[in-house]
Design goal:
By secondary structure, the protein is mainly beta. The protein has a single domain (15-124), classed as 7 Propeller (Methylamine Dehydrogenase, Chain H). Helices cover 0% and strands 46% of the residues. The protein has no helices and 14 strands. It has strands at 4-5, 8-9, 20-23, 29-32, 36-39, 45-47, 55-60, 66-70, 73-77, 81-83, 92-97, 103-107, 110-114, 122-124. Strands 3-4-5-6 form a four-stranded antiparallel sheet, with no helix packed on it. The protein is globular and about 45 Å long. This is Ligand-binding sensor domain-containing protein.
Amino acid sequence: MFPYHDGVWRSDSMRVPVEQAVYDPSGTLWLSNSKNLFTTDNRQVIDLSALADPVTQFFWDLENQLYAATTDGLYWMADTWQPITPLKGRLIHALVQDADSTLWVATSDGLWQRKKSNGSTWTKR
């Protein structure tokens, strides 16, 4: 990994394999491997062992809620990983949130959305 800061590229050697990188809403860089999601300074670590299926994407929404898209559904982090029931069994391809805070999820079964005004109601589009 080669971070760029203040006009200088640095070479940081990672002692563990890194599979994904994602920024949270505060701008903190998180990295993941098959076991953990962690900050580059290792001050914060989230265990991934409860997720039985491979993670295809991590995503933080505008309310700082963390999601894990997997090959068998979508999960959100409370104190533990919680499945989003309507999306269970679906391969999650991508997540994005628009300016209206609507969360869009591309799945193997089509496009789903969660509008902020509807709370946690998921609708297939």
